[in-house]
Amino acid sequence: MRMIKVGLASFFLLFLMACGETMSDEELYEEAISVLESEFAEPNEFTLEYSSFEMTEIEEIGDNLYEVSGNVFDAYQNGAGFTVKISIDSDTMDYEWMIE
After folding, report:
1. Which of 27, 50, 88, 91 has the fewest Cβ atoms nearer than 10 Å?
2. Tens digit of each residue's pLDDT (9 = 90 or more) over 36-79
3. What is the tens place of the pLDDT at every residue in 85-94?
4. Which of 33, 35, 37, 88 is CA-nearest to residue 55?
């Protein structure tokens, strides 16, 4: 069921972008967390916690290319850094992610 929610949220954000709206930092943060959950945590059956929005760096690194960086913690409070690059091109959203 969570995958459907992620898909609907992404579709809604793409719809806003097509209408000329830009994504807020909060929306970029939520999209990055959704990517990490659906691409990394759920397939590996991990329960993860992420740094708060206030402790996350969000930077526009190009035209409609954003980088969201922060920290991720497992159930034992072991931490790692994460970076999600989000590229938005009218009706398409692409991303790359890395946990190090």
Report:
1. 91
2. 999 999 999 999 999 999 999 999 998 889 999 999 999 999 99
3. 999 887 788 9
4. 33
Q: What is the DSSP string of the chain?
A: -HHHHHHHHHHHHHHHHHTTPPPPHHHHHHHHHHHHIIIIITTTT---EE--GGG-EEEEEETTEEEEEEEEE-TT--EEEEEEEEEEETTEEEEEEEE-
CB atoms within 10 A of CB 52: 10
Q: How much is the pTM?
A: 0.76
Q: How far apart are CA 45 and CA 80, in angstroms?
A: 17
* Per-residue pLDDT, 11: 46
